[in-house]
Amino acid sequence: MKPKREYRVLPNLPAGLTGLRRLAMNLVFSWHADIRDLFMRIDPRLWTQSAHNPVLLLGLVSQERLNELAEDPGFLSQLEEVVRQFDRYISNPRMTAADFSADYCDGERFLAAYFSAEFGLSSCLPIYSGGLGVLSGDHIKSASDLNIPMVGVGLLYQEGYFSQYLSSDGWQMETYTVNDFDNLSVQRVFDHQGAPLKVEVHFKNQPVCIGVWLAHVGRVPLYLLDTNLSENSPDIRGTTAQLYGGDREMRLRQEIVLGIGGIRALQAMGLEPTVVHMNEGHSAFSALERIHILRSEKGLSFDAAREVVQASTVFTTHTPVPAGNDVFDPVLFRSYFEQYAKDLGVNIKVLLGYGRVHPHDDSEPFGVTPLALRLSAHSNGVSRLHGQVSRAMWQHVWPHQPVEDVPVDYITNGVHVPTWISRELSILFDRYLGPDWSEDPDNERVWEAVSEIPATELWRAHERCRERLVAFSRRHLTDQLRQRGARTSEIRTAVEILNSEALTIGFCRRFATYKRATLLFRDPDRLDRLLNDPERPVQIIVAGKAHPQDNEGKEFIKSIVHLAQQDRFRHKIVFLEDYNLHIAHILVSGTDVWLNTPRRPLEACGTSGMKALANGSLNLSILDGWWDEAYHTDFGWAIGHGEVYLDHEFQDETESRDLYNILEKQVVPLFYQRGVDGIPRGWVDKMRAGLRRLTPIFNSHRMVQDYLHRYYLPCSRRYRTLIRDDLSAAKELAEWRSKVMTGWQALEVLDITSSDGYEMLVGNTINVAARIRSGVLAPDDITVEAYYGRLDHQGEFMDRETTVLELAASKGDVHEFRGQISCRYTGRFGFTIRVTPSIKRLENPFVMGLVNWA
Predict the structure, then answer these.
(1) CA distance 513 to 93
(2) Per-residue DSSP letters for 22-69?
(3) pTM score > 0.85 for this model?
(4) What is the largest CA-CA distance in the chain?
(5) I need a surface site. Which of 24, 308, 609, 773 has the fewest CB within 10 A?
(6) What is the pLDDT of residues 478-527, one digit of tens each?
(7) What are the two backbone dihedrals, phi and then psi, of residue 221, each rounded to the nearest 5 degrees?
(8) Residue 770 CA to chain centroid, in angstroms?
(9) Measuring CA to CA, how many Å separate 698 from each of 388, 452, 612, 840?
(10) CA 286 to CA 600: how far, in whole Å?
(11) DSSP-assigned beta bridge partners for residue 853
């Protein structure tokens, strides 16, 4: 039976405590420790019981306790100060939105919309699964700190991602806890009539109603979409039930809701982004919906609308493995998009082609990554190495470009340091770096002051973090065993695991098989000697989840758990169940060594190592992802030398031996090499070097500013240009593109000439000329470049530079372009001529896929 009416009961906060509700409804508490301290003071037991959820805490605490706090001068004083600091942060007197517009956009409007399928903001808002979601959360937290005009768009999952527990045999089991939205830091969005805001999409021509929720992330509003509405049928209501749950059709439905529904929700709220950032391909349909709106409301052709959308879209690809790039059967895609294609003004076969690497291959599935690549002005990987991998992976989308010219750049990820820093180090940084260090974490001058922190203080702060990690692990393991119905003797043993003074290695991440969680455990006897050295003990803490359908990943977990249960490892190896943001925070701050063993080059970035770095932990990793560009012997260790193996068994054996050697001969001796004061000064030197030289680079403030200056601002300017004067520039651009596309086949490089002489001296210049037959195209329709660089032993370009040649003469449709190449280095070099569509006309000329080589 269901009620006739619903109503919501809120905590009855006394007049002096009303500020608590404002603090609870903004996720800024996830990175401002003073706010968390305030809520913990209300009731420490309930704070833990509520999973550090301030909204739920206020619902659980008794009215008597609230009345008592309202009469407590100390608490009221603390609340007043916290609210004052919160208001100062939200209002940000240093820069308003108008100031941002004046400083960056010539006074014109700017709004970035950041789309992601998951957001890892706090463990009490479980709408994330792992690194992608945590990166999304850190991205908008930094956008808030930097006061960048931005909105986030995601899905509000009724059950979120699964909770993990292990069977008595160590097999991963999953449970799904229903999220009670009324006890989360989210609130419904209402329309102008005061009714809950709803937008509509279609599944196979069936209308689907979507509700909209708002989560405040500091200054950034995050809008979350929800299909669990009474207007929808039961199977439709479950669309936003689980993150990455269900079959391929369910995934397609979720991506329609996120991409199409997300754009419609922004439009219903009167929000018109000037740039859209698609974080992974899950939101690729947002580009199609923006085209649809421009067609239906502005009367643009598909081609003209595409110009506007493409020029103002940024796409970040994350995963270099097939599972991270969703594809859909063409028949399934047709069933959902046949009518939508007509609304877009294109044939369904054309729309399918946008999502195929080979557009004319009717048997190829539809992929959201090729769609996003084709409809974005800028695409990027998330580390330097990942950019290279992505260019090779998607080269066939641009078959006429050499792999190094595939238009996929990179911006290396970063982490939101204030979120991940431990309390102990935060206090230390306040004292030595200054109280405002967290507002400027990407400033290298700020981090130079790390050198002034005495080794004793830095080491003692880290030791307290390790002690807290050990104490937490004991409690957590004890709870695990009780829930599993373990014997009393096992539970009693759990309170004695680990040693708060031993070298502690952390391996905590998603249990995808390419991350090779078992590499450290390949030789149990050698591991036994390493861990149980009475003079130099070592211990390992492992945590992470395997995808519910990944049985190989589950086998990895099971094998580690079985090993940990052997008598020789019982106190030395611990697996912590149900890895989440709270556990991650304790682990990255308390471990001495952060271990990462992916199969190069499959780790896109690996931001957990950056979180450990910011807490003084030292990285020991394969040269993959961010560590490939960050590694130096001054602040960590590398496994191998960046090799890529074809024989994976041989690779695992080789790299596991290398790992044991590094631990035995370098890591363990350095940790236990103590002075008379008990401080491992060589180890502390590495801690300081990493903090000083890497933290200002590998943080999300730097990352977001890279996106802002390299992508967001240029895209936003281009968008405003194209929509002016009733979108006349967009219409002209579409006509120009059509002209270039149809006339390109007639374009020809007739000949090239250059300065005489085979040998040149450093400092010389080579005069280059090229004659081009352009056919129907005018000289300003094309860009002619000298493409030159160092050659390898096979005569192939090892690297390249380009210089634009200028029009020198014309006769009919034959034009001569001239320029110079500088000889700055010695060696074997070569050049050729490349012709592309005009770089002056397009935000990114390579997205057209047209190129002509001499």
Answers:
(1) 48
(2) HHHTBGGGGT-HHHHHHHHHH-HHHHHHTTS-HHHHHHHS-HHHHHHH
(3) yes
(4) 94
(5) 773
(6) 988 888 888 888 888 888 899 999 999 999 999 999 999 999 999 999 99
(7) -80, 130
(8) 44
(9) 19, 21, 11, 33
(10) 32
(11) 834
Burial of 657 (0-12, 13-18, 19+ CB in 10 A): middle
Give the integer Cα–Cα distance in Å for 667 and 683. 9
Distances (CA, A) of 818 to 786, 788, 840, 850: 9, 15, 18, 22
Residue 529 CB coordination number (10 Å): 12
CA-based Rg of the chain, rounded to a whole angstrom?
A: 29
Chain centroid offset of residue 54 CA: 26
Which burial class, exposed, middle or buried, applies to 71 when counting CB atoms under 10 A from its CB (0-12, 13-18, 19+)? exposed
How many CB atoms are located within 10 Å of the residue 335 CB?
14
Q: Residue 328 in contact with residue 248, Cβ under 8 Å?
A: yes
- Amino acid letter at 648? H
Q: What is the token pair recorded at 600?
A: 């190069």
- Nearest C-alpha neighbor of 615 from the set 593, 633, 637: 593
- Name the helix (H) or strand (E) containing 164: strand 163-166
538 near 505, Cβ under 8 Å? yes
Contact (Cβ atoms closer than 8 angstroms) between residue 234 and residue 158: no
Report angle CA 327, 333, 338 to the nearest 5 degrees. Answer: 150
**Omega before residue 93 within 30° of 0, cis:** no
State pLDDT tens for residues 189-246: 999 999 999 999 999 999 999 999 999 999 999 999 999 999 999 999 999 999 998 9
Helix/strand/coil percent split, the chain, to 5: 45, 20, 35
Half-sphere exposure in the Cβ direction for 128 (13 Å, CA)? 22
Q: How far is CA 28 from CA 83, 114, 136, 611, 707, in A?
A: 12, 18, 15, 18, 22
Distances 456 to 160, 305, 677 between C-alpha atoms, Å: 43, 62, 8
Compute φ and ψ for 141, nearest 5 degrees: -65, -45
Residue 116: partners with Cβ closer than 8 Å, 6 or more residues away = 132, 133, 136, 152, 153, 154, 279, 280, 282, 283
Per-residue model confidence as pLDDT tens digits over 97-136:
677 878 888 888 999 999 999 999 999 999 999 899 999 9
Q: What are the tokens at 479?
A: 């709870």
Strands 220-226 and 327-328, bridge-based pairing: unpaired
Residue 439: both structure tokens together: 């507002």
Where do the CATH 2.60.40 domains begin and end in the chain? 747-853
> Do the Cβ atoms of 316 and 329 come closer than 8 Å?
no
Residue-wise DSSP of 428-475: HHHHHT-TTGGG-TT-HHHHHGGGGS-HHHHHHHHHHHHHHHHHHHHH
pLDDT band per the 50, 70, 90 thresholds, residue 819 = very high
CATH for 455-696 (3.40.5.10, 3.90.980.10, 3.40.50.2000, 3.40.980.10): 3.40.50.2000
Question: Residue 528: what pLDDT?
Answer: 97
Angstrom distance (rounded) from CA 521 to CA 564: 10
Residues of the chain with CATH 3.40.50.2000: 97-166+173-410, 455-696
Phi, psi of 418 (to 5 degrees): -60, -30
Which residues, in sequence order, are bridge partners of residue 802?
A: 787
| Whole-angstrom distance, CA of residue 291 vs CA of residue 436 | 44
* 121 Cβ contact partners less than 8 Å away, ≥ 6 residues apart: 27, 30, 128, 137, 141, 215, 217, 222
What is the C-alpha to C-alpha distance for residues 219 and 94, in angstroms, rounded to an integer?
14
Cα(620)–Cα(627) distance, integer angstroms: 9
Between helices 455-483 and 581-590, what is the axis angle to 10°? 140
Select the CATH number that applies to the domain covering 97-166+173-410 from these four: 3.20.20.70, 3.30.70.260, 3.40.50.2000, 3.50.50.60. Answer: 3.40.50.2000
N residues, the chain: 854
- What H or E segment, with its residue span, contains residue 599? none
Domain 747-853 in CATH 2.30.30: no
Residue reference for tokens 């611990």? 574
